Amino acid sequence: MITIDGILRGIKVTTLEGDDSVEVSSLSFDSRRTGRGDLFVAVRGNETDGHGYIGDALEAGAVAIICEDLPERRDKGICWIRVEDSAQALGTAASNYYGNPSADLRLVGVTGTNGKTTVATLLYRLYMSLGYPTGLLSTVANYINDKRIEATHTTPDPLQLNRLLAEMVISGCEYAFMEVSSHAVVQQRIAGLIFTGALFTNLTHDHLDYHGTFSNYIAAKKGLFDSLGKKAFALYNADDRNGQVMVQNCRANIRSFSLRGGADFTARVVEHRFEGMLLRIGEAEISTRFTGRFNASNLLAVYGAAEMLGTPRLELLTALSNLVPVEGRFETIISPTGVRGIVDYAHTPDALSNVLSAVNEMREPGNRIITVVGAGGDRDRAKRPEMAAIAGSMSDIVVLTSDNPRSEDPEKIIDEMMKGVEPGMKTRVLRVTSRADAIKTAVLLAAGNDIIVIAGKGHETYQEVKGVRSHFDDREVLREIFLTSMDN
Description:
- By secondary structure, the protein is of the alpha/beta class.
- It has 3 domains: 2-97, 3-Layer(aba) Sandwich (Udp-n-acetylmuramoylalanyl-d-glutamate--2,6- Diaminopimelate Ligase, Chain: A, domain 1); 101-321, 3-Layer(aba) Sandwich (UDP-N-acetylmuramoyl-L-alanine:D-glutamate ligase); 331-487, Protein-Tyrosine Phosphatase, Chain A, CATH 3.90.190.20.
- Helices cover 33% and strands 24% of the residues.
- An 11-stranded mixed beta sheet has the order 11-10-9-12-8-13-14-15-16-17-18, with helices on both faces.
- Helix 3 runs parallel beside helix 5, helix 4 crosses helix 10 (293-308) and helix 10 (293-308) packs antiparallel against helix 11 (313-321).
- The relative contact order is 0.08.
């Protein structure tokens, strides 16, 4: 148990009425999950305002309320706490409630449009392979050492986040690596956390449906670096034009990485093929199972962060060469006839361009690229024509299809994608609304050593249509169609 006063450490309180020495049972920001003896935090969200549920929280037995606006009628016997930002207060309160677990871990946050999952996951795998107890918070899954915990968000809410970090501490973890989404920064989910370091991968068009403008999106990402202390490190991608913007006025120890040179950590792709690439990092060469310049950048980011964490260089290079790609990221499946299928999570214009660039660089003359791609519903609509334009310009055949249409009509999403297709490309672009049928169409069109790229969903094992999630895995579907096509 912890007192209200203990939970309020580090929170700027403007008004306090009542006894703050009372112990609380738990924290909540959802009145439906509030219990007797709890402290309820009224948070303003995009769709609902927690202030409207203060009465419900009190009926459920809450003994304390944190809010931005105090209600006119305030029950006696309740501790009322007014703050300027209740979302920020929730993050700090959650950290206090769980004993400030981030202070007992070497916590590194990874942010950027693309590469977050790969970099955070590879750092986790790297340190696990070196024998360090390690935790991971990512889009694909959360891990506490070898224990897998399914992920529901890229960055969990403050209560889930600090609970997981506390479990990591209890389990003996020394390191923790986490993806930090732009939403998480804006919504103050990382408030109260103490980061050992932060890493920036890149910034491209995404999430403008939420942030409104690209400037707001940049500011959201930069928020992670603005929060760093003087003892932390900040590592940024010097090849991205927004890299230096991220670390402007940052108090941390700033370092950079680049594939072009002129940075603190540099690398060069010596040789690449579908099976992997030979990568020169500094003066050392390592053979890896990754391919593509974007993956070379990801590996360099991992290397730079590990050096900043003080890992011996020889151990680091050896472990780096043994890492394997993250599931659903440039994952290769080969048919019995030699057709190569590549499943990738690429769901932004830049990510799709990176994948198709890598494939184009490695394909043999005469091998066609057949790309299956869609765009998610209820998300940034501006990138839909861009995705189709990139697929059309970098592929021989394109099959436009559904991604996760959510509440939208998939046909209308494809209509918007078609606006990006140049007139000369239209004869090479097909529309197949069913994603399974689209993959099947691509397989039927492929021959010899053609390459099929299936973009957008990667590791996901579901498809969301009209609010209903059904099992769907691009990799399973591709393998099944590969085998079925052999029987026909």
